[in-house]
Design a protein that fits this description.
The chain is mostly helical. It has helices spanning 81-89, 92-105, 124-134, 138-151, 159-179, 183-192, 202-214, 218-231, 235-245, 251-258, 272-288, 296-309, 312-324, 328-341, 345-356, 361-368, 376-390, 400-413, 416-428, 432-445, 450-462, 466-475, 559-571, 575-585, 590-607, 610-617, 624-644, 648-659, 666-678, 682-693, 698-715; strands at 6-7, 57-58, 501-503, 522-524. Among the domains are: 6-153, no CATH class; 377-532, Serine Threonine Protein Phosphatase 5, Tetratricopeptide repeat; 537-659, Serine Threonine Protein Phosphatase 5, Tetratricopeptide repeat; 664-716. Helices cover 57% and strands 1% of the residues. A two-stranded antiparallel sheet has the order 1-2. Strands 3-4 form a two-stranded antiparallel ribbon. Helix 17 packs parallel to helix 19 (416-428), helix 23 (559-571) runs antiparallel to helix 24 (575-585) and helix 30 packs antiparallel against helix 31.
Length: 716
């Protein structure tokens, strides 16, 4: 007859968890509900945890249950070898646990009146085996049993020893599988060795719960954690159970665990200290998923902890949370608090990112310079600050010291995007030869970067290097639509820059998140212009801004999504990023493509990039009204740029062309008057100024006075 096997009270019945083929059931596995089992349990490695039992509990499905008419102890041979061993060693706690176990198995069994005086029956080899078991030397114990069976025919070890050995080996296997993250094996071993899952060995229960969570069976993990909380009473283990569940369970399931909270003697909840950690975890989850909705109470909890506890890590959590939620102003507040407490690379990186997102790259560069080489993420954010600083309109005044350190950082990182920005910066300062050197360097670092090639061709054209222009045009045949046209159209005279990509920090998830956190994306940055256009850029964003304060590479977006993002970026005055989004939208068709061409034209006009606006306008047919609007704006911008460059005849030509399609505004009448005045066409200048002065324009009145003065000077 197969021996009946029992487990100590508190054992989790895994009948609902066992898969008959491979360790899993087809129906959902659950742990028993609260109150199903007594709390006492036996640790397979430490019998001291055994408590007295009121009645035996049978194992899971498949094991032999105890019949009601089982033979009394007096008619059966009871294995007291463990009892004798513990008694001989003077291990009182283990001895008492073994007595409790035997009484649970055999209720009519009576232990010796003086267990410590149990007479030792001589079997030194068996005693040595128990010693190996007690020391956890399971492999040596297996070998000792096999050796004795070989040497002594017919000898069998006590069934109790074999059962304990098998259970200890199963525990060891489960622990090893857990450490190796072999979670399916953890569940399989646990399901076939239900005696392991007891309150006496909560660590095993924790590991099984984690295995369920890691294999996407969160409900089963929750049930395992709830079983511990409902049946295991040690305060430190209950606290640790919720603590271990924090990173593994959803907030909804965590709330079920928290609902089991008990009061401590001082009247506080036993999980009070964990609620702050739960709120922190909530914000950390939000950093990984920008769309995750966080309870306001969690944000308030972490803000309170940041103010009261003074931990810089709490300030950083809040800073990253607000960066992800397109609120760089609030992010700046918390990053500054973190930096005041601990001036570290991470706090400085977060602060710099918040400043970049507020178009304050000079502050970002200054803050992050000392930390720029800490790690790749920090370096990328620093280079983003450099690129955005160089791209400001009008060009930012930079000290030689700042310029020099930026140059060194860009050169050390071999960052093509920032080198390209240096090219446009030099071009905006009317230093085309220096600009050409930077564009050439950018191409050496990234040969397939078309904007750098365009910039090099444009600056060579400006310096009269026609052979150099042809060289670039030849190399980019079929790969660029605009490089072959450099120098062929008068509109090139207005070109003062070209959009380009620069390494900039982004928190969008795909954020990841610097964990602290995640790798940074490539984004468009604001463009600069050497000219100072006086005309207002036409067109307003067609949609209210929504979730476009952070930067991202729009190439992964669908045309329609990119179109919406482009209008959003226009609304928050980030035209170059908008132009990049509209460029993706141009991949669409029909109305989407037409809207994208219109939007990109407006974006480049706002950035002062007239040549790019003209090219964008030709990408798709537009409605008549939009076509006139863009054409009018282009001619107005050309007139302003030509005047700034001293090309007054071109100014008049652009204004005449514009006047044929739209009424001339007062400001443009003044511009026309000064162009005539520069050409010493005094009568035409006076006529233009008088027409504008009739509207009460003060600039026109000054223009009339300038005409009189010039005439008098000319007569002398």
């Amino acid at each position: 007859m197969k021996p009946a096997i029992f487990i100590a009270a508190g054992t989790v019945l895994l009948g609902a968890m066992v898969l008959h083929q491979g360790g899993y059931l087809s129906s959902p596995a659950t742990f028993p509900k609260a109150g199903t089992f007594p709390n006492a349990a036996q640790n397979p490695r430490d019998d001291a945890s055994q408590q007295s039992l009121s009645k035996p509990i049978t194992l899971a499905q498949g094991d032999q249950p105890v019949d009601a008419d089982v033979a009394p102890a007096s008619s059966r041979k009871i294995d007291e070898s463990a009892l004798r061993y513990f008694a001989s060693k003077g291990e009182t706690k283990r001895l008492n646990a073994e007595i409790a176990r035997l009484k649970a198995l055999y209720p009519d069994w009576t232990p010796p009146a003086n267990p410590l005086a149990v007479r030792r029956q001589g079997d030194p080899q068996l005693d040595q085996m128990w010693k190996l078991y007690s020391a956890g030397k399971l492999a040596e114990l297996r070998k000792a049993i096999a050796d004795r069976q070989t040497a002594q025919a017919g000898w069998q070890p006590p069934a109790d020893l074999l059962q304990r050995l098998a259970l200890a080996e199963a525990r060891e296997q489960l622990i090893n599988a857990s450490n190796l993250k072999q979670y399916d094996a953890v569940i399989r071993v646990g399901s076939t060795n239900s005696s392991l899952l007891t309150c006496g060995d909560v660590d095993v229960l924790w590991r099984v719960a984690e295995a369920f969570a890691r294999t996407r069976r969160e409900d089963r993990a929750k049930d395992a954690y709830l079983y511990i909380l409902d049946n295991c009473k040690k305060p430190e283990e209950r606290f640790a159970t919720v603590q271990k569940a924090l990173p593994l369970l959803s907030r909804q399931n965590l709330d079920q665990l928290l609902a089991t909270e008990q009061k401590t003697p001082d009247g506080k909840g036993e999980f009070a200290a964990l609620r702050g950690d739960i709120a922190r975890q909530s914000l950390a989850n939000a950093d990984a998923d920008p769309k995750l909705v966080i309870p306001a109470a969690d944000i308030a909890t972490v803000e309170g902890l940041a103010r009261e506890g003074g931990l810089a890590s709490d300030d950083l959590l809040l800073g990253w949370y607000y960066v992800q939620r397109d609120n760089p102003q609030r992010a700046e507040t918390w990053f500054r608090k973190a930096r005041d407490k601990e001036d570290t690379a991470k706090s400085s990186q977060g602060l710099a990112l918040a400043l970049i997102n507020q178009n304050r790259p000079a502050e970002a560069e200054d803050i992050l310079f000392r930390w720029r080489d800490t790690d790749d993420d920090t370096r990328k954010v620093y280079l983003a600050a450099v690129a955005n600083l160089l791209a400001m309109t009008p060009p930012a005044p930079l000290t030689p010291q700042v310029l020099q350190r930026m140059v060194q950082a860009v050169y050390a990182a071999k960052d093509a995007a920032s080198a390209q920005q240096f090219g446009w910066y030099a071009d905006a300062l009317n230093q085309p030869q220096t600009a050409a050197q930077w564009f050439k360097l950018a191409l050496e670092w990234k040969p397939d970067e078309e904007p750098s090639a365009y910039g090099l061709a444009l600056t060579r054209w400006k310096t009269g290097d026609k052979a150099g222009v042809r060289e670039i045009q030849s190399a980019w045949i079929g790969r660029s639509e605009r490089i072959p046209t450099v120098g062929e159209r008068s509109i090139e005279t207005a070109a003062v820059g070209k959009p380009r990509q620069a390494a900039a920090a982004s928190n969008e998830a795909g954020q990841e998140q610097p964990s602290r956190r995640r790798p940074l994306a490539q984004v468009e940055v604001s463009e600069h212009s050497a000219a100072r256009p006086r005309a207002a850029t036409p067109g307003r964003a067609r949609q209210a801004p929504r979730n476009c304060s952070t930067t991202l590479d729009p190439s992964s977006l669908s045309p329609q999504t990119a179109l919406s993002r482009g209008w959003c970026l226009m609304q928050v005055n980030r035209p170059i990023e908008a132009a990049a989004a509209f460029d993706v939208a141009l991949r669409g068709s029909g109305r989407t493509r037409a809207d994208a061409a219109y939007g990109q034209s407006l974006a480049y006009l706002r950035a002062g990039l007239i040549d790019r606006a003209a090219i964008a306008a030709s990408q798709a047919p537009m409605e008549a009204g939009r076509s006139i609007e863009i054409r009018t704006a282009l001619l107005e911008a050309q007139a302003n740029t030509a005047f700034d460059r001293g090309r007054y005849n071109e100014t008049i030509m652009a204004l005449d062309e514009r006047a044929r399609i739209a009424p001339e505004r007062t400001g443009l009448m003044v511009l026309r008057g000064y162009a005539y005045l520069k050409l010493r066409r005094f009568a035409d200048a006076e006529q233009a100024f008088r027409a504008a002065a009739a509207t009460g324009n003060h600039d026109a009145l000054r223009g009339l006075n300038d005409v009189r003065n010039e005439r008098q000077s000319n007569m002398q």
